[in-house]
Specification:
Strand content: under 5%
Structural class: mainly alpha
Number of helices: 14
Number of strands: 0
Helix content: 40-55%
Low-confidence stretches: none
Length: 351
């Protein structure tokens, strides 16, 4: 009886299962972000709409400029810079001065992406680099908040949005008082909980009916948009799951020890920019590890660090710095969690 030749052909990685281009992935991410942006505009009005346009345009122009200066092909068509512009706007206060927002876009793309070599070479999330810059440069503007669903938000701009460069804007507090927004204190739920131990209603956090950045919208909506990318296999679910697990596990002992001082794990997960950061920022494919174990460790680290900064740092929010720090240590996480090559010793697995 003849024996069939059963030859197994082994090729080098990557072993592609599906041909999906970078621009296809980026277009889907933009599509997943659009409902979040639309809800934010519905919450805060035309000021956020203009904020989204300004940051996106600033990022596009900066990308085009640096591509020309470095003699690289223009990469605007891959849609990655549009994601940066949208995410940057969502991390800023609704009434953030537009000239500052444009500057944040320039710094985020120029310093956080182009100087490293462009798409695929950036060490940190460019949108968060731009946000970190304005956090340090304009501390008052970055912590000036306006209420959600304010009357007249579709017919007029928040005064601070149109402030001229280096000029003092109209007092936003006066603008809020003129519209008689009941119950608005000028503080975010995170600040109220951290400094006054007042917890916001969970339903308000779920729907986004609170003061905060433009991206502190409905937690349910952000999760639904993230699940779309997970089902399309364009985002790893392990990173958000690790962040939620890390934040919940870190905050739970403190809450059980002193619930009148420390927030509940549910409040930690739903408040601030944790949901947006976990779903759309920490999952940046370039700045995050690739190994399954590394994704979990990366997410757990971000969740842990976010809670530590929130509870014991000088700032009410800690998601931005947690993700940026995790971006920096991501190569080390990937190296530590690298699988051992079959037949090689553990000491030689990373050689």
């Amino acid at each position: 009886m003849p024996i069939r030749d059963k030859t197994v052909e082994i090729k080098t990685s990557p072993h592609l299962k599906k041909t999906v281009s970078v621009d296809q992935i980026m277009r889907n991410v933009v599509g997943a972000l659009l409902p979040v942006c639309c809800w934010s505009v519905y919450q805060f009005g035309i000021s956020v709409l203009l904020l989204l346009l300004v940051t996106t345009l600033s990022c596009i122009l900066t990308e085009s400029l640096f591509c020309r200066l470095s003699q690289r092909p223009n990469s605007i068509g891959d849609f990655s810079v549009i994601i940066t512009g949208l995410l940057l706007a969502l991390t800023l206060p609704p009434g953030f001065p537009l000239w500052m927002a444009a500057l944040a876009g320039f710094i985020g793309v120029g310093l956080g992406k182009s100087l490293f070599g462009g798409l695929g070479y950036n060490v940190m999330n460019p949108a968060l680099v731009g946000r970190a810059f304005v956090q340090a440069a304009f501390p008052v503007a970055i912590t000036t908040w306006t209420p959600a669903f304010a009357p007249g938000r579709f017919s007029e701009f928040i005064p601070s949005s149109l402030a001229l460069p280096f000029m003092s804007p109209v007092d936003t507090a006066d603008w809020v008082r003129e519209r008689a927004v009941d119950g608005f204190t000028g503080a975010t739920p995170l600040a109220l909980q951290k400094f006054h131990h007042i917890a916001a209603d969970s339903m308000d956090l779920l729907t986004g009916a609170v003061a905060g950045s433009a991206g502190e919208t409905s937690a349910i909506l952000i999760l639904v948009c993230g699940l779309y990318l997970v089902f399309r296999k364009m985002m790893s679910w392990r990173i958000p799951a690790g962040i939620f697990l890390g934040a919940g596990m870190t905050s739970l002992p403190f809450y059980l020890l002193s619930p009148e001082i420390y927030p509940s794990p549910l409040f930690v997960l739903l408040s601030g920019g944790l949901m947006l950061g976990a779903v759309f920022m920490a999952t940046d494919m370039v700045a995050s590890p690739m190994t399954p174990a590394g994704l979990w460790l990366y997410g757990l680290f971000i969740g842990f660090l976010t809670v530590v900064i929130r509870l014991f740092g000088g700032l009410a929010e800690g998601v931005m710095y947690a993700i940026l720090i995790a971006n920096v240590v991501s190569p080390m996480i990937a190296d530590v969690t690298q699988s051992r090559v079959y037949g090689a010793s553990a000491k030689r697995r990373r050689s």
